[in-house]
Amino acid sequence: MKKRIIFIADFYTDQIHGGGEKVNDILIESLERLGYPVEKYRTNMMGDYQHQFPPTEIKEISKKVIDENDVFIFAGFREHMSEDCQSALAGKDYIIMEHDHKYLKTRDPSMFKDYLAPKDMIVSHEFYGGAKAILCQSKIHAEVVNKNLDTGNVINLGCSMWSESEIAAILKASEKDKTKNAAVLRSNNIIKGTSEASEFCRRKDIEHDFIGGLDYPDFISAMAEYKKFVFFPQVLESFCRLVVEARMLGCELMTNEKNGCTSEEWFGKLKGKELISFVEEKKTEIIDTIVKIVEDMSSENIFLEKSTPADITVILNSYRRPYNLKMQIEAIRSQTNPPKQIWLWINHHEDNEGFDYSELGIDRIIHNDHNWKFYGRFAGALLSDTEYVAIFDDDTIPGRKWFKNCLDTMSEQEGIMGSAGVILNDKYYVKHDRCGWPSHNEETEEVDLVGHAWFFKRDWLQYLWREKPPTWDNGEDMQFSYTAQKYGGIKTFCPPHPSSDLEMHGSTKGNELGVDAKATSNNNETTHQQFFSERDLCVQSALRSGWKTVRGIKL
Fold first, then answer.
1. Residue 190 contacts by C-beta under 8 Å, 6 or more apart in sequence?
2. Are 77 and 43 in contact (CB under 8 A)?
3. Where is pLDDT greater, at 439 or 523?
4. Longest Cα–Cα distance in the chain
5. Is the same domain home to 12 and 71?
6. C-alpha to C-alpha distance for 10 and 251, rounded to whole angstroms
7. DSSP per-residue codes, 264-293
8. Are residues 57 and 184 in the same domain?
9. Is 401:497 a contact under the CB 8 Å cutoff?
10. Cβ–Cβ contacts within 10 Å for residue 469, how many?
11. Distance CA 440, CA 174 (A)
12. Which DSSP symbol is given to 76?
């Protein structure tokens, strides 16, 4: 006999047609199709109790549960759970389908620095901590929930769900010609940012219309006629189905960074019918995940690992791309093995003058009036007092399991780890093979040098300074690997970068952030010829001094 589901929500679609209510109905319908009996309850029909879910109702519902394995799914609850209500749930199996951020008094984490709320703003912590799983809809949604609660039971479902009728409406509308310019959502809800989107269009001289107040098929049909969709939410949207629907319809998006769906890897790659097919497949995957949790309430292997600081100091670098720092820091703070401290080494350049570093929330800032180029950050790392050091180029955003990947690889084979490995084929640097994020190596590979992201033991830094490099303008990556091998017997490796799990990668946006005119190998200050001539000098100098490369290159 299938486990019985006690489904508890504020509203269902017969009262409100919101995104959360639609997802709830889809989940219930899917569970029922699979043979799970579902009993639905509404929190707003269960008495007032000072706007909290009343514990008396929990006890009454519990009396109906014959099988102790039956499961509660909380997909919405008014305000926050009272202590009495949380006590009544003790010992019960329950899942929280988190549609926003109800563990916060404000329900909006975007008003707090780095989305991290003060402890006195957290409510119902015991309730969230006691859940077998907290189900979130996007990567950033899950990371913010996990960051604030640190309960170790957060799961990112990675998408929302659409019903068969909704998908049919989208497919039909996607065939329409785009005859109008830009659409702005008409909404009286200030968090949907109607006035902000309209003002943006006015400033940019974008001709636009307002759409809204229509049944779903009519709304989708209306949106499909527009080339652009302009949407500026005023709070962090957990997912935002509307933005994905616009992309499924082939609209150009003009929006801000407060849409959870944009944090997903697939978002920037898929659109139109390809995206429609993806969300249909993803719906099946999401239901399978939830069923797995229902059937095996101890499936801890699919949870986001609980954050425990590792003995790591991170060194970031600011030169010409200070605007990437916030994204880097968020990725580093979200590591499953977060660091103890994050430091910033600032090399002087006019591109970073006036940038406000004080709002980044990092532990140490070393601000220079000189450009120390590549070696400066490695010098700064000598001041660290942790077992490990992690250094990142300014165009490198790691997946959340990058540090775990490095530590796991270290446990099998100690060495300098990096996200972009290089295996030389000749005394000329340009003739090399790459692994790591550029090639997605499935297994650990020994390489000659690594770049973009380094991970190593702090004590190994001593080897870098045993010899004066042939130039201070280039080649710190090969100098470090060469001297560590020569004086410490330390090899260099590229940990696994499987294509099936980008969270293990040391760099997830290398093809997006590292190819602009500010790249050292691609800018006006250093020509290609000069850059590679310097690299050749470093290779040949190390070879003459005894560097043993993977393929045994000789001068």
1. 234
2. yes
3. 439
4. 84
5. yes
6. 33
7. STTTTT--HHHHHHHHHHHHHHHHHHHHHH
8. no
9. no
10. 22
11. 35
12. -
CA–CA dist 39, 299 (Å, integer): 24
The predicted structure's pLDDT at residue 67 = 57
pTM: 0.57
Say which amino acid occupies 420: A
99 with 20: CB under 8 angstroms? yes
Of all helices (H) and strands (E), which one includes residue 404? helix 402-412
What's the total number of domains in the chain?
3
Q: What share of the chain is helix, strand, coil (3-state, %, to 5)?
A: 40, 20, 45
Q: Whose structure tokens read 């504020």?
A: 10
The H-or-E segment that residue 387 falls in is none
In a domain, 287, yes or no: no
- CATH code: domain of residue 100: 3.40.50.2000
Residue after which a domain boundary falls, among 156, 188, 210:
156
303 assigned to some structural domain: no
Indicate if 239 and 330 belong to the same structural domain.
no
C-alpha to C-alpha distance for 158 and 286, rounded to whole angstroms: 8
Q: Is 194 exposed, middle or buried (0-12, 13-18, 19+ CB in 10 A)?
A: buried
**Per the domain annotation, does 554 fall within a domain?**
no
Q: Of the candidates 119, 138, 156, which is a domain's last residue?
A: 156
Pick from 142, 143, 156, 98: nearest CA to 124: 98
Residue 274 to residues 265, 271, 288, 501: CA-CA distances in angstroms? 15, 6, 22, 21
192 lies in the same domain as 69 = no
Distance CA 181, CA 178 (A): 8
> In the numeric block, which tokens belong to residue 349?
């350049």
CATH number at residue 464: 3.90.550.10
**Do 318 and 359 have their domain in common?**
yes
> DSSP letter at 44?
G
- Domain extent at residue 402: 312-544
Kindly give the residue spans of alpha helices, DSSP state H, lying in 137-267: 139-149, 164-173, 194-203, 216-223, 241-248
pLDDT given for residue 84 in this prediction: 63
For residue 184, give Cα distances in angstroms to 228, 232, 239, 246, 267. 9, 9, 18, 11, 21
The tens digit of pLDDT for each residue in 382-421 reads 999 999 999 999 999 999 899 999 999 998 999 999 999 9
Asked if residue 201 and residue 120 are part of one domain, the reply reads no
- Write the pLDDT tens digit of every residue in 193-220: 999 999 999 999 999 999 999 999 999 9
DSSP-derived 3-state class of residue 43: helix
Residue 449 · residue 481 · CB < 8 Å: yes
In a domain, residue 297? The reply is no
On whether both 211 and 316 belong to a single domain, the answer is no
Closest CA to 229 of 267, 182, 270: 182
β-pair type (94-97, 71-74): parallel
472 and 365 co-located in one domain:
yes
Cα 104 from Cα 121, distance rounded (Å): 6
